[in-house]
């Protein structure tokens, strides 16, 4: 009888333990008020909770609350410090060569289409670079624009003598090709650098500018005129610790799988596209000066930055990748999915 009671007690304890929800630690570098958390992570977390009968739940840690710096996020996911991170592969220069192609100048026209292209590039070329991680999404941001405090920028010569912040290795190469001095730094450091004059300007999409209150400390904004491709974009990933994913039940894995991939990537890109007009309006309302870079001037920008792609193909080919095919596919897919 006693053995039976003990067995029943153990079985009850086991059932109770199995009923405990899995709490996923989700880390990123943006403030909690940013689009990334409010319009992407929070709805995504609510959806996986609902579809898993609350056996999957998120605890979101914005603004690097788990410690470390933005470039360390990807390693935090691999090491299990965080279960899921949202970050830039480009913050760790050279670590993810396969996905850098999405950051070459004048590649994408919009974030939704560019994000679909990014996921397909990952599927075809990128998986070996992300060992230890389960990619949930790859996306790009809305059209990258030029912002500075020195002068209006409408042609390549206007970059001469400027110190410009850029987020990744390839955007730094692009800035240098345009004649400015690139200053590499993660996005959270940018407002302080602008306010102290460490940099004269920066390249960023519209969504980020008011999130970081940069429109309050910037005089001039220069935009590549559609339908020309945007000047540049930055690649982001939402990635999960592979061991954490492997530890989930089959039902929980199905929920994660159903809420990751190409459609999730495109939805994030669409959210960034849709955010741009309202973000831009905040700079307009302050009376900041706007300049449009038309087709004739864009040709000069494209010529000045063409060698960035040429050099990239040579670099990754030397590392064993098919750089020419990767560039061709990124260009083809980006054009195919462009709105």
UniProtKB/TrEMBL annotation:
<protein>
    <submittedName>
        <fullName>TRAP transporter substrate-binding protein</fullName>
    </submittedName>
</protein>
<dbReference type="Pfam" id="PF03480">
    <property type="entry name" value="DctP"/>
</dbReference>
<dbReference type="GO" id="GO:0055085">
    <property type="term" value="P:transmembrane transport"/>
</dbReference>
<feature type="signal peptide">
    <location>
        <begin position="1"/>
        <end position="19"/>
    </location>
</feature>
<dbReference type="InterPro" id="IPR018389">
    <property type="entry name" value="DctP_fam"/>
</dbReference>
<keyword id="KW-0732">Signal</keyword>
<dbReference type="InterPro" id="IPR038404">
    <property type="entry name" value="TRAP_DctP_sf"/>
</dbReference>
């Amino acid at each position: 009888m006693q053995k039976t009671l003990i067995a029943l007690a153990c079985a009850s304890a086991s059932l109770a333990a199995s009923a405990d929800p899995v709490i996923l630690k989700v880390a990123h570098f943006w403030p909690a008020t940013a689009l990334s958390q409010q319009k992407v992570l929070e709805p995504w977390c609510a959806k996986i909770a609902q579809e898993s009968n609350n056996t999957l739940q998120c605890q979101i840690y914005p603004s690097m609350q788990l410690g470390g710096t933005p470039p360390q996020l990807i390693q935090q996911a691999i090491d299990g410090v965080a279960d899921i991170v949202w970050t830039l592969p480009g913050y760790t220069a050279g670590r993810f060569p396969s996905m850098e192609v999405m950051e070459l100048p004048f590649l994408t026209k919009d974030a939704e289409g560019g994000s679909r292209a990014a996921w397909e590039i990952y599927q075809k070329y990128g998986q070996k670079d992300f060992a230890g991680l389960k990619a949930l999404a790859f996306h790009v941001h809305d059209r990258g624009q030029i912002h500075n405090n020195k002068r209006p920028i409408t042609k390549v010569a206007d970059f001469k003598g400027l110190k410009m912040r850029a987020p990744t290795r390839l955007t730094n190469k692009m800035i240098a090709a345009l004649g400015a001095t690139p200053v590499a730094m993660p996005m959270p450091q940018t407002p302080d650098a602008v306010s102290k004059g460490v940099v004269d300007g920066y390249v960023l999409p519209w969504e980020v500018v008011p999130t970081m209150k940069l429109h309050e400390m910037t005089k001039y904004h220069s935009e590549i005129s559609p339908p020309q491709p945007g000047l540049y974009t930055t690649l982001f990933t939402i990635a999960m610790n592979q061991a954490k994913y492997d530890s989930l039940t089959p039902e929980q894995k199905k929920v994660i799988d159903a809420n990751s991939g190409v459609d999730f990537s495109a939805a994030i890109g669409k959210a960034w596209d849709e955010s741009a007009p309202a973000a831009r309006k905040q700079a307009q309302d302050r009376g900041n000066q706007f300049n449009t870079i038309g087709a004739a001037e864009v040709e000069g920008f494209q010529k000045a930055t063409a060698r960035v792609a040429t050099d990239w193909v040579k670099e990754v080919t030397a590392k064993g990748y098919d750089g020419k095919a990767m560039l061709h596919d990124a260009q083809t897919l980006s054009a195919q999915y462009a709105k």
